[in-house]
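Researcher: Go.
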Amino acid sequence: MSARFEEIDWRPTPLGDISLRRRRDPASGDDVYEVKLGDEFLMSSLFTAGEIALTRLGLAQLPDADLDVAVGGLGLGYTAQTALDDSRVRSLVVVEALGEVIEWHQRHLVPLSARLSSDPRCRLVQGDFFAAVGDPVGLDPQSPGRRFHAVLLDIDHSPRHVLNSRHAALYQPPGLQALAGHLHPDGVFALWSNDPPDAEFTATLAEVFAAPEAHVVDFDNPLQGGTSTNTVYVARKK
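Model: Structure:
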């Protein structure tokens, strides 16, 4: 196989065939890691500004120490690693539906895996984040009913473009209310979206959370040329 491209892993999953690929970027010469679900690109190490901003914006207004954080969606690990880079974070639980993705990190097949797996504050949990939100056990099976200072979610493309139809209920008031139940008072819910700011969803957030904001994150897009954007929603528990 050419050194310019390698399919590192391919697996059938309940959500469809998932693959991890590495290719050499001709412009920079860097290795780019990509995840595909079927024919759809889920994530790329070429575009990580949104995932990093999700954590930074989500944690920005929290206290100075001893933060317990939950992340929905592991992916290539940029949201999780940015949380661990924050010295205030004392514990991190990452809920990932696909055991195959967790295994990529355990086998050190992706760039950040060694740092994530060696940090004693971090625990990777295989599970359905959306089902866990509605379960009394909650997001941490080892500590039923545990609450967090922040819940950071990066799974669906946006509240309107979900990977599974079951996920849509979370983005309605009852689902958001259930999610708020896993937060400490004044805790933060932050959500990554690939779509522009959605005024209707921001209004829905406001039914449950205090003062939600939609932050636009700009980043260079060498594939399309120019600049692309993501959106990060941040809201505090009432």
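Model: The longest strand covers residues 209-220.
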